[in-house]
Amino acid sequence: MKTTTRIHASPVSDKNGQRPDTPAGFPARLASRWLDGLIAERGLSRNTVAAYRQDLDALRDFLDELETPLSGLDDENITLFIAWLRKRGDATRTLARRISSLRSFLAWCVERGELASNPAALIDTPKLPSLLPDVLTQDEIVRLLNAPDATSKLGLRDRAMLELLYAAGMRVSELIELQPIDLDLQRGVVRIFGKGSKERLVPLHDAAVMRMAEYLKIVRPLFTPVEDRVFLNRSGNGLSRQGVWKLVKRYALEAGIRKPISPHTFRHSFATHLLEGGADLRSVQILLGHADMSATELYTHVQSERLLQIHRKYHPRSQHACIRKPHETFPGLRPHRHHLPQQRRLGCPVFDDRHVHDLPRQHHDLSGQHGKAAEPVLQRNRRISVYL
User: Given 53, 60, 97, 267, which residue is catalytic?
Assistant: First the structure.
């Protein structure tokens, strides 16, 4: 079982590894205990805890400017803190996370008797925009996978890396932490440790197995490994997140892909293409390692958008030029001249009821009288409009 390395989770520290309390009295050691507890008790990943550490550093800087201790925080100060973050340029998603981490930290302080109340308990987080992820087409995926130079060790490494990203739908953090022992190429599976060190097994297709076998057996030893990571840089150390991001950007340009792209785009494309191929939502959730089905349902919206575009492009009645006009079906109907400008403006013919009587009347009521059942309708609708 893969062990999680314990990190010192305190805010920005001095040369002794501790950040001293400010004159305002921010409890740095209290914050350090809370962050350590997130790792030990809740099993959060190092990247998540590092983000929370940045959130507490922002709170500390704000309290330094305000010259107020943590115990002096109230509703008004929390509102000022949010305004201070916005003025500093924090994005909406970052702001929502900072408010959430602040609320959790203050609640933890209240539980341990460090604070009398939680002033952030009733603060609402900003509503996040519902954005559909960018997805590559299957043709773009092929072009991107073929972009690296297969005659150099760096190109072979990058080709295997891109192939694995798309084959397993991995996060970039999972990719750079991958170790050779996590790959079972004989069975064609990869063991991935996701958020909170949650383990999942993802199958690999034959092309990915072939690329990875070639890389591990022939190419990886050429990097003179220093760290026990699958993908290494020139120095033999593991690739960084920034390194993978730069490589993906570079190969996207070489492949002629101009849309915004990142390593996570492979994960979005992986899930979307599985659903387009007929995979059920529960299976995709397991392969992605999502704890909540709502996170996976995002890709059904992407699929719906694509289906809508296909419908609009190929359905014959979605194209006005291909639609048969009503007077071609019913010769008795003719567009009234008075409405021709409106017809051109709206893109649909408008008809007057004076021509409706030309249509065969086959309306019958229970008494056997003909035509009377239609009269009230014609009186109520003096103008009949047909919208295509």
Answer: 267
pLDDT in tens, 193-227: 887 778 889 999 999 999 999 999 999 999 999 99
Q: Is 264 tagged catalytic?
A: yes
Angle at 256 between CA 251 and CA 257, to 5 degrees: 80
Residue 80 has pLDDT above 60, yes or no: yes
Tell me if residue 19 is catalytic. no
Backbone torsions φ then ψ of 202, nearest 5 degrees: -125, 125
CA dist 7 and 9 (Å) reads 6
Q: Which listed residue (159, 171, 268, 273) is catalytic?
A: 171
Q: Residue 381: is its pLDDT beyond 50?
A: no
pLDDT at 368: 43
Q: Does the annotation mark 166 as catalytic?
A: no
Amino acid at 112: R
Q: How far is CA 291 from the centre of its chain?
A: 15
Is residue 365 over pLDDT 50? no
Contacts of 216 (CB under 8 A, 6+ apart): 180, 183, 185, 230
For the record, the structure tokens of 245 come out as 């991001």
